[in-house]
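G., the chain you wanted modeled:
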Amino acid sequence: MKILDRYIAKTLFKYSLSVMAILVGVFAFFKFLEEVDDIGNAGYTLIDALIYIGLTLPSIAYLLFSLIILLGVILSLGSLAANSELVVMRSTGLSIIDITKSALKISLVFALVMILIGEFLAPIASNYAKKYRAEAMGQKIVDVNQQGFWIKDGQHIIHVDKNINGNQFKDVTLIKLNSAKDLGSVTHSQQASFDGKVVDMRASQSYQIDQSGQFAIVDKQVLPQLSTQVAFDQELLKSLKKEPKELSTWQLFKQIGYLTSNQLSADGYEVELYNRLVKPVTLVAMIVLSIPFVFGSLRDASLGKKIFLGVVISLFFQLIANIGAQFSLLYNLNHFLVAFAPTLIVFVFALINLKRISAR
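Predicted structure as tokens:
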């Protein structure tokens, strides 16, 4: 079995990497077409666009990894079937279930690698990509984190640790610059409000810095209220909001906890979290469901039909998942059941069908 596992692994990885290169390349190409209109604006060049697209590739690969692995399995087993290697394997006493287990073990290893990329590398690369593009376009955004943001506005640099709803901020730091190298003051407040033009900081601690002498003099003041007029507006703050799919799983946990503790709706984040947790189970169900079609037509099924079958199955499951998520949000259904119930039903059906085919 170890030799068989290694041989199937080699074939599966070869086809999966080929599929990944093609699919990620296609999605990257269409993403590049979206950037073409912005090339030439401000300092945004063709090289900047290519760097930006390159930094988004881990996110694209993570988004498509279920489809990549499924097609990799179908193509690799289809190739083995076309060369009559599956017939030889079965003639040695291996059952369809044994071969399926080998394919599943390798697929889950590949899936684990893709999940690690999606959880750790993709968010970092995606954040840097947005920052790089914003700077190349001459925009004001400095950085965006899970719940807050950094933004440079004229001679002010503002950090908001928690953006509640675009009108209420928590843990706000206002840095005032007298010049590019001259720090004027640093003011911190636990709470602030924003009406679209003015940031109103309450119960602030302000540190006024005088650097005119040989040594910098820091004067601490407690201000009951400090209002600062800014150039950004609500539309910019809305553009800073991260979508649930852009957060790592750990960030989703934190965001759900934060929203729940503040009695705010976390439905969108819960749906994304449950869909992400069920994704490996869905992948296994799709593989188990599709493998019998390969074994059921070892002699007359073309690779084209297997590819088409894999695409149809993948898109069907993806469509069901998306529709289920929207129904869950629209009708306030149990997000956990909506995410897991269809996959478990299909998984049970796939196992029954696999045992039936294997018993022939």
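The mean pLDDT is 81.

Shout if anything looks off.
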